[in-house]
Each structure stands twice: as C-alpha cells, then as structure tokens.
Amino acid sequence: MRFTIACPHCGARGIARAMEKESDTLWMIDFQCDDVTCGHTYRTRLEMFPPETPIPRREGGVSRQFQFLV
Ligand SMILES: [Zn+2]
C-alpha cells in the first residue's frame, strides 16, 4: 500500500518516504511531493487514539481495590 497525502503547496500527491517510531502509539512520517518542480517535503505525525488499552493493565500485580480516598 502506498500512503499519500496531498501536498499543501501544489496539491500534487505526496508520498510517504520514511517512517519513524516515536512511541508505541506515535509515529512520524516523512512525505515528499511527487511534483519535481515543487519537491516539498513535510513531516506528519500519526497518533493512535485512544492510546490506552480498553482494559487497563494492573501494575506489578498489586491489587488496588483496597485503596480508599480519605
Ligand atoms: Zn508540492
């Protein structure tokens, strides 16, 4: 699959050239305009949303059910 986003300057298609993983839910993707007379390169951010899992993981196996707010 080719990932494209229209160039903001000339409207030609921009093609994803490089992908850099920032975290488990965040990627930076570099695009390059396919029009050689424009040649604009731009960076986009792809963020997964929501970042948390539907069922929160327990931390360290310690039960939190006996914590009360005073
Ligand atoms: Zn362009």
List how many beta strands DSSP finds. 4
Low-confidence stretches: none
Helical residue percent band: under 10%
Mean pLDDT: 86
Widest beta sheet: strand line-up: 1-2-3-4
Q: Measured on Cα atoms, how large is the radius of gyration?
A: 20 Å
Q: How large a portion of the residues is in β-strands, by DSSP E?
A: 35-45%
Distance, first to last CA: 55 Å
Q: Enumerate how many helices there are, as a single number.
A: 0
What overall form do the CA principal axes indicate? rod-shaped
Helix-strand category:
mainly beta
Bound molecules: zinc ion
SSE string: EEEE
**Biggest sheet descriptor:** 4 strands, antiparallel
InterPro entries: Znf_Ogr/Delta
Protein name: Transcriptional regulator
Domain Zinc finger Ogr/Delta-type: 7-48
Organism: Paraburkholderia madseniana
Question: Can you describe this structure in just a few lines?
Answer:
The protein is mainly beta and 70 residues long. Helices cover 0% and strands 41% of the residues. This is Transcriptional regulator.
Q: Could you explain how this protein is built, in words?
A:
With 70 residues, the protein is mostly beta strands. The model has no long low-confidence stretch (mean pLDDT 86). Strands 1-2-3-4 form a four-stranded antiparallel β-sheet, with no helix packed on it. Helices cover 0% and strands 41% of the residues. The protein has a domain at 4-47. The radius of gyration is 20 Å and the shape is rod-shaped. The chain is built from no helices and four strands. The structure holds zinc ion. Zinc ion (ZN) binds at residues 7, 9-10, 12, 33, 35, 38, 40.
